[in-house]
Every structure is written in structure tokens, then in C-alpha cells.
Specification:
The protein is of the alpha/beta class and 262 residues long. 50% of the residues lie in helices and 10% in strands. Strand 5, helix 7 and strand 6 form a beta-alpha-beta unit. The protein binds adenosine-5'-triphosphate and magnesium ion.
Length: 262
């Protein structure tokens, strides 16, 4: 492990890299997960590494959808487990959701490690180790699910999802909430509620929302869900990326060096 100096201008981003690398070594995250993380980092840079107002709106609608569902499930993969293990456990408890491990690069050992890791943060009854149902029309390992979890869920929260499974879950009639920094991905386009934000900001924001909704009436929560327009929301995220490019995000970073003639 490399010790990252606290005063490094990109401390947070580097610390996340360290953490996800540690989790690869611990058998929690796949090596391919590192590549997915890098793609996320690139887009995060373009949105200014902050929660956009449109993402906050999506996060609120997502929490309202989870709170008004009968059997909500949070699907966890290796990257999510590495980046927000405690957050997932807390959010699940606040919205009354089950947690199920579901992996693209699935091995029994990795599912067991992730389950154990989440349990060390207080999770109980983590599903996914003994899948007893299959998502129809999906050939990858992600089709393996548990009957009482993802298979019978009415709403599934899928951080860092794969477009194919997102489509298959929608085909099963479920409400799908995605957390994906890429507003252009198939996942973001397909999901009912797409949160274009880094999972490390999205989950804490959702925890805050869940707490603030504690005494909100169901009818008002439903209003949040139905008033949400995913297409408009994604367009707002794309606009923000374009604005960042036009204005030059570099203005906000450390400055420029000019070559001099010697
Ligand atoms: P799709 O199959 O939906 O078109 P994809 O193939 O582009 O997506 P995958 O490799 O399936 O992407 O999944 C990785 C996705 O997760 C990427 O879109 C990436 O932007 C996103 N991602 C990576 N790290 C994070 C993060 N920390 N928070 C949120 N999203 C992230
Ligand atoms: Mg994909």
C-alpha cells in the first residue's frame, strides 16, 4: 500500500484507488473492476467531481421509490463493496431493503468474501451465495439470483450496473434505479431512475434523504417518484458535461505553466 500524503491535491481520488486496489488483493473486487473504476473517474472529472443538482434530484426520487416499494433490493458488486460497504448497509436498513451480491465475473469465493466483508460492517442476511433462480434472457453469470431477493424484487438499486442486466430486470417488470457516472451508458438510458454521480457521493446523499423522509407521507413520496423525468435528468447531466468542456474545467485546477525561451 502506498501512503498518500493528505495534502496531495488529488488525495480523495488517489485514496479511492488505493482502497479499490486493496480490495482486489483481498479478493473482493475483480481486476476488471479497476478498469470500470477508471472509466468512472474520467467522467467524474468532466462533471467536476461533485454531485450535480440533477443527480441530487435523482437520488431523492430513488430513495422515495425504495421507501414505497414492497420488496426493494440493493444489488452489490465488487466495486460497490469496495467503495461504500458501510453506506450500503446503512442505506439498506433505512429503506428496508435486502442486500444481494451479484457479480459479472462470478466466483463462489468472491461472493462469499463480499458477503463476509459487508457483514463486518453490520449487514445481516446478505443474499447471493446460493442462487435459486435465473433472470430470463440473460446469459452472463449475473443471471444467477435468489428467489427471495432480486428475482422477486419490485425495485432494484443497481450501482455500477451492466446494460444487459439492467434491460433484463426491466423486462421482468421491475423498477430499476442505477448509479452510473456515465449518462451515455446503456444502463443510464434504460433505467427508470439514473443517478449520474459517483457511488461514494450518491450513497451518503441517499442516506441523508432517507433520514429526511422518515416522517414523509407515502403519498408525498410517490409524488417524488412520479414527478421524476429520467430523460430530462440525463440531459441535464450531459449539459453539465458540455458546459464544463466549454468553460474549460481546467480553469478550476491548479493553473498553467508557460514555456519560456532559454
Ligand atoms: P453499459 O453496459 O451500461 O453500456 P458500460 O459497459 O459502459 O455500461 P460497465 O463496464 O458495464 O460499463 O460498468 C461500469 C460503469 O460504471 C461505467 O459506466 C462507469 O462510468 C461506471 N462507474 C465506475 N466507477 C463508478 C463510481 N465510482 N461511481 C459511479 N459509477 C461508476
Ligand atoms: Mg457493459
Amino acid at each position: 500500500m502506498t501512503e498518500i500524503p493528505k495534502d496531495h491535491p488529488r488525495y480523495e481520488s488517489l485514496a479511492l484507488r488505493e482502497e479499490i486496489t486493496r480490495c482486489v488483493e483481498a479478493g473482493i473486487t475483480s481486476r476488471q473492476g479497476l478498469i470500470a473504476h477508471g472509466r468512472g473517474e474520467a467522467i467524474d472529472y468532466l462533471i467536476g467531481e461533485k454531485t450535480l443538482p440533477s443527480a441530487l434530484e435523482a437520488e431523492e426520487a430513488a430513495v422515495a421509490a425504495l421507501l414505497t416499494s414492497k420488496n426493494p433490493v440493493i444489488s452489490v458488486n465488487g466495486n460497490t463493496a469496495a467503495l461504500v460497504p458501510g453506506g450500503i448497509v446503512e442505506l439498506a436498513e433505512l429503506v428496508g431493503a435486502k442486500i444481494e451480491v451479484n457479480l459479472f465475473h462470478r466466483t463462489e469465493e468472491r461472493v462469499a468474501r463480499i458477503k463476509e466483508y459487508l457483514e463486518s460492517f453490520g449487514a445481516k442476511d446478505v443474499l447471493g451465495l446460493n442462487p435459486d433462480a435465473t433472470i430470463p434472457g440473460l446469459s452472463s453469470e449475473r443471471a444467477k439470483v435468489s428467489k427471495e431477493g432480486i428475482f422477486s424484487a419490485d425495485t432494484v438499486l443497481v450501482p455500477l450496473e451492466d446494460g444487459d442486466r439492467c434491460e433484463a430486470l426491466i423486462g421482468m417488470g421491475k423498477t430499476v434505479i442505477a448509479i452510473d457516472l456515465n449518462p451515455f451508458s446503456r444502463t443510464s438510458r434504460m433505467a427508470h431512475i439514473s443517478i449520474v454521480d459517483n457511488v461514494v457521493r450518491a450513497i451518503p446523499n441517499m442516506i441523508k434523504s432517507a433520514k429526511s423522509f422518515r416522517y414523509t407521507r407515502v403519498i408525498d413520496l410517490l409524488y417524488f417518484v412520479y414527478a421524476f423525468d429520467n430523460r430530462k435528468n440525463l440531459e441535464a447531466a450531459v449539459e453539465e458535461i458540455k458546459r464544463g468542456l466549454d468553460e474549460g474545467r481546467l480553469e478550476e485546477s491548479s493553473g498553467y505553466s508557460k514555456l519560456s525561451i532559454w
